[in-house]
């Protein structure tokens, strides 16, 4: 597969996703797992299937080749969120080391899919290092931001920096807030979604001051998510192309603000595949290739 990884905003050419048929398997599997995985509610299997069909169709309509992960008995419900299991760079995939024990097998499962697609495995986060893909965002092709929180630790960030080596000029460490504690799902991309080289969707109430100032200093326009829509994942938006994004329906003020900033917004229903597992459109996808200048 042709490479082109070091962007989170270029036109989306190829993406990995996982359908509930393979991630959730059936209603009985959901019923066995959802409480232990700290889901906010019990997903309904058939409705999740319908939602995912429509979500994947939106990705295809945007011009992306959608590659679906197969079933794997080593992983569970959370494997529907492949973003967290790997980080992409121009040398290939870096397999993460998940902090959530129930997700420990996901990086290697995703690695097997990469190999089948011809995506080279550039490296792995190992040992005591912890790194999750939701904490990693490309600010530009030579600058990467990494959230340091409960899911990603110092050793994981150190290993990532070593693996990226000459691929980056700067690795920006962003301290994350305690928020709801170590059992909550909170990543850098919970409060920051890049939408173009000079535009980002943010929740500034939790954004560290130095990082926010750095974004402004780079000339990035910030679209602010209102307090009342942060909990409904208003800040989790997937760039389909510069200034075009996909987000969860039910965040009307965030949508209004994005459109006022010139963004084309497309929405999907995610009651079963997103809200109950606290994973928005960025979590549901692992972009493989974006067009870069």
Summarize the helices and strands and which ones pair or pack:
Elements: E1 12-17, H1 20-23, H2 27-33, H3 45-61, E2 65-68, E3 86-89, E4 92-95, H4 106-117, E5 121-124, E6 136-140, E7 143-148, H5 154-164, E8 170-175, E9 192-196, E10 199-202, H6 209-217, E11 221-224, H7 227-230, E12 237-241, E13 244-248, H8 252-260, E14 264-268, H9 271-275, E15 286-290
Parallel strand pairs: 1-2, 4-5, 7-8, 10-11, 13-14
Antiparallel strand pairs: 1-15, 3-4, 6-7, 9-10, 12-13
Key features of this structure:
alpha/beta; three-stranded mixed β-sheet; 25% strand
Characterization of this structure:
It is a single chain. By secondary structure, this protein is α/β, with parallel strands linked by helices. It is 27% helix and 25% strand. The protein has nine helices and 15 strands. The strands form five sheets. Strands 2-1-15 form a three-stranded mixed β-sheet, with helices on one face. The longest helix has 17 residues, at 45-61. The protein is globular. The mean pLDDT is 95.
């Amino acid at each position: 597969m042709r490479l082109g990884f070091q962007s989170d905003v270029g036109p989306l050419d190829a993406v990995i996703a996982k359908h509930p048929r393979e991630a959730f398997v059936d209603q009985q599997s959901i019923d066995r797992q959802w409480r232990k995985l700290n889901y906010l509610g019990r997903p309904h299997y058939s409705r999740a299937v319908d939602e995912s069909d429509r979500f994947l169709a939106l990705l295809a309509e945007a011009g992306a080749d959608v590659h679906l992960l197969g079933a794997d008995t080593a992983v569970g419900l959370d494997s529907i969120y492949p973003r967290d299991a790997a980080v992409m760079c121009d040398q290939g995939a870096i397999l993460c080391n998940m902090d959530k024990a129930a997700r420990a097998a996901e990086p290697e499962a995703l690695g097997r899919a990469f190999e089948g697609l011809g995506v080279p495995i550039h490296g792995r986060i190992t040992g005591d290092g912890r790194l999750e893909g939701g904490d990693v965002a490309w600010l530009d092709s030579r600058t990467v931001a990494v959230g340091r929180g409960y899911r990603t630790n110092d050793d994981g960030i150190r290993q990532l920096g070593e693996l990226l080596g000459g691929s980056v000029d700067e690795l920006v460490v962003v301290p994350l807030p305690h928020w709801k504690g170590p059992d909550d799902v909170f990543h850098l991309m919970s409060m920051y979604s890049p939408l173009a080289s000079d535009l980002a969707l943010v929740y500034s109430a939790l954004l560290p001051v130095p990082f926010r100032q750095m974004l402004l200093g780079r000339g990035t326009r910030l679209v602010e998510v209102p307090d009342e829509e942060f909990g409904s994942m208003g800040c989790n938006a997937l760039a389909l192309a510069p200034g075009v994004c996909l987000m969860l329906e039910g965040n009307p003020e965030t949508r209004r603000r994005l459109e006022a900033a010139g963004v084309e917004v497309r929405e999907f229903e995610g009651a079963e595949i997103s809200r109950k597992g606290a994973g928005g459109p960025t979590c549901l996808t692992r972009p493989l290739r974006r067009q870069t200048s």
